[in-house]
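Form 7-S
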Amino acid sequence: MKFEEKDDYILFTSQEESFKEFYDYFTVNHKNLTENNVIIDLSSKLNVQSSEISLFLEYANLHHKSGTTFVLIYPDVDIDSFPETFNIVPTLVEAEDVLEMENIQRDLGF
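Output:
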């Protein structure tokens, strides 16, 4: 896994072959990031199950409560299987769009 600080968010990118390895690394490194917008780019080669993606819902809720955005990028997921408030998109461009829209909503007081 690598993480990269962008202008408005921190991007986590999976490079591991194992979801468990990626998730464990993320869990350790996320502790000080709840005040930052976070985008996670899961590689399609991880072969992630819906139950594993659900593990990130806890982090999405933490970010929502702290007024920041949490977006998960995974191209092969049925987003209808998850809560509407859980941001899952297929591409980085769409993740950045979600981040921008949520920033606008926060600025407008929604």
